[in-house]
Automatic annotation (TrEMBL):
Record's keyword terms, sorted: ATP-binding, Helicase, Hydrolase, Nucleotide-binding
Chain positions covered by the region annotation Disordered: 1-28, 47-68, 1068-1087, 1122-1180, 1264-1297
DNA2/NAM7 helicase helicase domain boundaries: 337-712
Bias (Basic residues): 1-14
GO CC field: nuclear RNA-directed RNA polymerase complex
Skewed-composition ranges (Pro residues): 1134-1154
Highest taxon of source: Eukaryota
Name of the protein in question: P-loop containing nucleoside triphosphate hydrolase protein
Domain DNA2/NAM7 helicase-like C-terminal: from-to ranges: 726-910
Gene Ontology molecular function: any one: helicase activity
Residue ranges with Polar residues bias: 1068-1077, 1272-1281
PANTHER family, A to Z: DNA2/NAM7 HELICASE FAMILY (PTHR10887), NFX1-TYPE ZINC FINGER-CONTAINING PROTEIN 1 (PTHR10887:SF341)
Length: 1297
């Protein structure tokens, strides 16, 4: 294929290009022409000043107040500009109005399988494609809003109306405009802390004329306090200096794209513009794809390295202390590294462009750290630092943590570190505070003074706009009215010149205009009940904001904009004047008595004068804004001079790939020669190009192009012929540039690793360390499983997908795993969709047993490079159209299948995904070999009895407390049997609920439950005393073992006269939290906040009262007046119960989705704050003579009949008396409701007629393995054929065992 990069059309016709200029900088200075002379001059000055060399510390010196010369190299890079150049190099940093208003744009094609024609062709191609990706949605938004100016918020754009200027902030980035706005077009409340709306760095487009003309601005800050305040929310915008506005009465409509975050593109685009063939030393290999790659120059200069710290297990240490790394390494070299890792290490140390592919679990990071240790341990004094860039702050912290184990002279640049110890101390911010370096003849003080002076001038201009109206003193100052007219204002109304009186239209100042000519400024006060769906975690939002604001190294995060703020908030405006000609206005202005003008003329004159005043001061204000911006940039350069010296003295500088572009000039000033990129295949090519600064001799790319790749905001740009998502890593590998692949995986047990065989084939093998790993507790030998279902997906308020039933099933499965002793921190739930992530997170938070469990829920894209013992994957997609969305992207699937160490469980519609994707078909084949591991149930295994329980839906978890459905019946120390179902936890903290019956000293028997302190409840003279060794009244919350949910005793229905005895009702067990031990009540009722709960955990049986307590009393001797203290919540009447009301008089039964959850598991945790409506009076069972208390049912709803059979399955069935509708917590449907259809998949012959637990209503043909692609939703219940196998959809009427 030809190496020519052809130009093509992304739209139909060619459009104009924007060539607005950036002011404030001179023409670029070529690096090669000046750096040698400049560096020589710096060296001479160092010699004359007799400075000591670089010290061991990061500051570069151990002397206090060390003076350093001006860093001319940094200044040269900072002031470099391409202003005035033609074509793509001359475009401004921010898109121009002309750019977003045009309809068509010309784009080049991306050459991914051949060399580019030239370096300039390579750079311009990536610049044009990246700029289009960043701005295309803005252009589309303008087009949509021009066609429909009243368009509402949608999945692509956020639209805000009634946008007004309310003030200005003099910030370090420039003069920022604060605006207020309305959320009327969103129609919802915004969870700003976790929303991507108006993130700092986002581009917004504003228009006051229905987008016939537009302005472009960047979001500078979005203080949460200003967004959630009463009234209109507020945000700070940064306009180009020449586009700032002062008209506070003008209203705009503003929109932003939900797709592209411009800050991620901006610095890459600037870096590409400044690069050329002369200052791009690796262009021969990166742009021209030259496979002849030799060693970097610094290795050729000194090839003998001390490798003793890397090969620490070799017996002959002398053999590796002076090892020529360019020659073959001795075979006797000992290390914990395998052969592929040693080969990769050799490539990293000896190639100018070194590429290492690391499949999941093969030790990419381990190999990178070994290479860094070799490079850092062989650095000499004065060598420049090594630059390391990672995709995320989390990955960067992890890598730097490993490096700190052997080298502490490192600095973290930019971003927000989550490490509050070692890494935080090594941030540039912390290092700058303690550094003794000072810059001789620094321009900082002079620039600071200039900035303050111009700030004073600008504040003077803004004074005229602080009041609601332009005051006469400002008009006369500009010569817009005569002195006589000004005196007339003063004589007629002395209060006119007082701005304080300007707030109310009733005041004297407004009397000249007339109250009829003044209107109050509209306030939106948007009030909505529903919240918009969340977008990101709060931590990720804060990372993005801090990166933009430059707050990454500060102690505390501050989302507000720093700088002096001038408020222009006004509450009233003059009306628009109508029917007065310019001639009448000019005639009126000839008169000296302004009070003699008619009211309608006064209004017209005022609006005329205000417009002229705005035009006069606007130009001055914009000029000063431009100067202020230039002084701000000069001040930033002066600040960075010290930072450059601090970075230069470090051995390693770490940052994200976003930071690599943003801080490019600062990094370039340290003259690095080695740049390492972790997860290089996950990044677009542009950020890695700009990381190749003029001094770089070696680029190390570590990653895996079979896992996640970069993504584009415009999906068309990911496809042919643009291929923007193809990384530099993948392009070079596909063009035969040499690389090394790591081959021994140490993460996954072999059964999990088999799932990614279709991706890596036989190139990946298991290290011996992964063989024989323990099984997941509670799952028997089922460590890999695919639970399939056909519950339909749904869409949330955005474009993301959710599957509610799948989320519930996963939540209950997590609860089961935790009950079996699996550490919640070792469980991760992954999903391909952000909507499902928040759904699962909400279900976990609402689950009584898991609300405090630290189970991580993440999207697959956010989890690359991470792992955990147990991973649960939610596929979400289930529809009749055969669409699987993100599940069809093999790179994402590869990541999802390879994160687990011990157990991996997939939840989704197996029929759909295997019929829509070849990769998923291969996964299905693997899971169907030998023992089938794809079923419509999950087999869980009881640890005690080894019974296997098949869970078909989330209702089937009811009754399980981590074991099987058998009764525990273990003998307790007190002699009673445990009344719980089978459970994996012991009885060490169990409190027996059986009747005590012990003989008391007074001669009466204790009528309390066994766990409670013994006390006489009869009227006797004996002092009631505690029975030694049995229970106590209170137990601290912190003493409760974690991870064991509360389970109330299994109280059966008893004959009349026992179920409502006074002792049973008066003293009631009381759990303390969702983490309290099973069967262990915490405190007697009547002390502290309380709520009601049914006795057997299913919303049935005796009412029980629970309280919370935080401390244990020192002495537990006497209960005091127990008759007063333990009062029943509901006083039951004496005598027989009232008659049963007729069925027709009872309220109708609610639909299943609105009924109380009658299937709460025995042992499920007790809610902490239930609604007060749960407290209900007693009701009469229609079939039993005993009284029963109901605490989980709304007012007026009759209770279900629960037969007392002792069988959990029978007891779980709920039948409403007198209605012709039957419900079952086992999943049966009401009479007359059509059942769901389940596919019969690869059913063993022994299970014929069972069909995934459903009642088979027609013959079923067993599927062959070749029939996998045919699995999927069917319509009409008809038989489908594919690949020789038949799929029969059968009716699921009830479960048969």
């Amino acid at each position: 294929m030809s190496g020519k990069s052809h130009r093509g059309f992304f739209k139909k016709t060619k459009g104009p290009t924007g060539n607005a200029k950036r002011g404030g900088y001179q023409q670029p200075v070529q690096y090669e022409a000046t750096s040698g002379e400049m560096n020589a001059g710096i060296s001479e000055r160092f010699k004359r000043m007799n400075f000591r060399g670089n010290g061991s510390g990061p500051s570069g010196s151990d002397q206090p107040n060390e003076m350093k010369p001006r860093n001319r190299l940094l200044e040269m890079f900072e002031r470099e500009t391409t202003e005035g150049q033609e074509g793509w190099r001359g475009l401004p940093d921010i898109p121009t109005p002309e750019e977003v208003m045009r309809e068509d744009v010309e784009l080049p094609t991306n050459n991914i399988d051949a060399p580019f024609e030239s370096v300039d062709d390579y750079l311009s191609t990536h610049y044009d494609l990246l700029r289009e990706d960043a701005t295309a949605h803005l252009r589309e938004g303008v087009s949509y809003l021009r066609a429909d100016p009243h368009m509402q918020d949608n999945s692509e754009f956020c639209i805000y109306e009634r946008v007004r200027i309310i003030g200005f902030t003099f910030a370090s980035m420039g003069v920022c405009t604060r605006v207020s706005f309305s959320l009327a077009r969103a129609g919802k409340r915004i969870p700003w802390a976790s929303s991507k709306r108006l993130l700092p760095g986002t581009i917004v487009v504003l228009s006051s004329d229905e987008f016939e003309t537009v302005k472009i601005a960047t979001v500078a800050a979005r203080p949460i306090a200003g967004l959630v305040q009463a009234g209109d929310p507020e945000v700070d915008l940064l306009f180009p200096a020449r586009d700032n506005d002062l008209d506070t009465s003008r209203t705009y409509t503003m929109f932003e794209s939900r797709s592209a975050y411009y800050e991620a593109y901006k610095h890459v685009l600037i870096g590409l513009q400044r690069m050329n063939e002369k200052n791009f030393p690796l262009a021969r290999h990166l742009a021209m794809v030259d496979p002849d790659i030799g060693p970097p120059q610094y290795v050729l200069d000194n090839p003998e390295w001390d490798m003793s710290q890397v090969f620490d297990k070799v017996e002959d240490k002398a053999a590796v202390r002076r090892l020529n790394i360019l020659e073959p390494w001795p075979e006797t070299v000992g290390s914990e590294m395998d052969e592929s890792q040693k080969e990769a290490l050799s490539r990293i140390l000896t190639k100018q462009v070194a590429i290492v592919q690391g499949p999941p679990g093969t030790g990419k990071t381990f190999t990178s750290v070994k290479a860094l240790r070799a490079i850092l341990s062989n650095m000499k004094e004065g060598d420049p630092p090594v630059v390391v860039a990672c995709q995320t702050n989390h990955a960067l912290d992890q890598l730097l943590g490993y490096v700190l184990e052997f080298e502490d002279n490192i600095i973290r640049l930019g971003g927000r570190t989550q490490d509050r110890d070692k890494i935080k101390k090594r941030t540039l911010y912390e290092m700058s505070k303690s550094s003794p370096i000072q810059i001789a003849n620094s321009s900082f003080p002079r620039t600071k003074r200039s900035l303050e002076n111009i700030k004073v001038d600008m504040k003077g201009i803004l004074d005229a706009f602080k009041a609601d109206f332009i005051l006469p003193k400002h008009l006369v100052k500009r010569g817009l009215i005569t002195d006589e007219q000004y005196q007339s204002f003063s004589i007629g109304n002395q209060d006119w010149v007082s701005a304080e009186e300007d707030a109310s239209p009733e005041g004297d100042i407004s009397s000249w205009l007339g109250r009829e000519n003044i209107v109050p400024r509209e306030q939106s006060f948007d009030k909505y009940l529903d919240y918009e769906d969340e977008d990101l975690e709060i931590e990720r939002i804060q990372e993005l904001e801090a990166e933009f604001l430059g707050l990454g190294e500060d102690e505390e995060f501050d989302d507000s904009l720093r700088g002096d703020y001038v408020s222009l908030s006004q509450r009233q405006d003059a009306r628009d004047s109508i029917g007065v000609s310019q001639r009448e206005i000019q005639e009126a202005l000839k008169g000296d008595d302004v009070w003699a003008w008619p009211p309608h003329v006064r209004l017209a004159v005022y609006n005329h004068l205000r417009a002229k005043y705005l035009a006069m001061v606007m130009e001055e204000f914009r000029d000063r804004c431009e100067k202020y911006l230039n002084f701000s940039k000069d001040l930033a350069v002066a600040k960075r001079e010290k930072q450059a010296y601090i970075l230069e003295s470090a051995k390693l500088i770490g940052m994200t790939t976003t930071g690599l572009a943003k801080y490019r000039t600062l990094v370039a000033a340290t003259k690095p020669r080695v740049v390492m990129i972790e997860e290089a295949a996950e990044s677009l090519e542009g950020p890695l190009i700009v990381g190749c600064t003029p001094s770089v001799q070696q680029l190390i790319l570590v990653g895996d192009h079979r896992q996640l790749t970069g993504t584009c905001a415009v999906k068309d740009l990911e496809r042919d012929p643009y291929f923007l998502c193809v990384s530099m890593f993948e392009r070079l590998v596909n063009n035969d540039i040499g690389y090394t692949m790591l081959s021994a995986q140490r993460r996954m047990r072999p059964e999990i690793r088999q799932l990614i065989y279709p991706i890596y084939l036989d190139k990946l093998y298991d290290h011996e360390s992964v063989v024989g790993r323990p099984s997941v507790k509670g799952m028997g030998d089922t460590n890999v499983f695919f639970y399939t279902h056909d519950q339909y997906e749904a869409s949330n308020s955005g474009t993301s997908k959710v599957n509610e039933q799948e989320s519930k099933m996963i939540t209950e499965f997590c609860n089961y795993l935790v009950l079996n002793g699996n550490d919640p921190k070792r469980i991760t739930i992954l999903t391909f969709y952000a909507g499902q992530k928040f759904k699962i997170y909400g279900d976990l938070r609402d689950h009584q047993g898991l609300r405090d469990a630290q189970i991580r829920v993440a999207t697959v894209d956010a989890y690359q490079g991470e792992e955990n013992d147990i991973v649960i994957l939610s596929l979400v997609r289930s529809n009749n159209e055969g669409k699987i969305g993100f599940l069809s992207v093999e790179n994402r699937v590869c990541v999802a299948l390879s994160r687990a160490r011990l157990g991996f469980y997939i939840f989704g519609n197996a029929g759909l995904v295997t019929s829509a994707s070849r990769l998923w078909w291969d996964v299905g084949q693997i899971l169907s070999r030998d023992t089938p591991r794809i079923q419509d149930f999950i087999p869980v295994t009881c640890e005690r009895h080894k019974n296997v329980v098949e869970i078909f839906n989330h209702y089937d978890w009811n009754g399980l407390t981590g074991g099987c459905r058998a009764e525990c019946k273990e003998r307790l120390p007190c002699g009673h049997e445990c009344v719980l179902k089978c459970h994996p936890f012991d009885h060490s903290n169990y409190r027996c609920p059986a009747d005590c019956g012990a003989m008391l000293p007074c001669g009466h028997r204790c009528s309390k439950q066994c766990f409670a302190p013994c006390a006489c409840t009869e009227k006797c003279a004996e002092k009631r005393s505690l029975r030694p060794g049995l229970g106590y009244d209170e137990m601290p919350v912190n003493d409760i073992p974690q991870g064991v949910p509360y389970s109330s005793p299994d109280i059966r229905y008893q004959p009349q006269g026992v179920a409502y005895s006074s002792q049973d009702i008066r003293y009631q067990p009381t759990p303390v939290s969702s983490q309290s031990p099973a069967g262990v009540p915490i405190k007697a009722a009547g002390r502290g906040p309380s709520f009601a709960r049914s006795a057997n955990g299913m919303g049935l049986g005796l009412e029980r009262k629970y309280t919370q307590v935080q401390t244990r009393p020192e002495k537990l001797i006497d209960f005091g007046d127990e008759e007063e203290e333990f009062q029943p919540r509901t006083v039951l009447p004496k005598g027989p119960p009232p008659p049963v009301p007729p069925a027709h008089t009872r309220p109708p039964i609610p639909p299943p989705h609105s009924r109380p959850n009658m299937g709460t598991a025995m042992g499920a945790a007790t809610p902490q704050s239930p609604p007060q409506s749960w407290d209900r009076p007693a009701y009469v069972s229609p079939t039993f003579s005993s009284w029963e208390l109901d605490t989980g049912r709304p007012n007026g709803i009759s209770p279900p009949q629960v037969p007392s059979t002792g069988s959990w399955e029978r007891q779980a069935a709920i039948e409403h008396w007198g209605d012709q509708v039957q419900y079952s917590t086992r999943g049966a449907l009401p009479v007359g409701v059509k059942p769901q259809r389940y596919p019969v998949v690869n059913m063993p012959a022994a299970n014929a007629g069972r069909s995934y637990g459903a009642v088979v209503t027609q013959p079923v043909t067993r599927m062959s393995e070749e029939a996998w692609p045919s699995l999927g939703p069917s319509s009409g219940g008809k038989q489908r054929q594919n690949g020789g196998g038949n799929v029969n959809w059968v009716t699921k009427a009830s479960r048969r065992r």
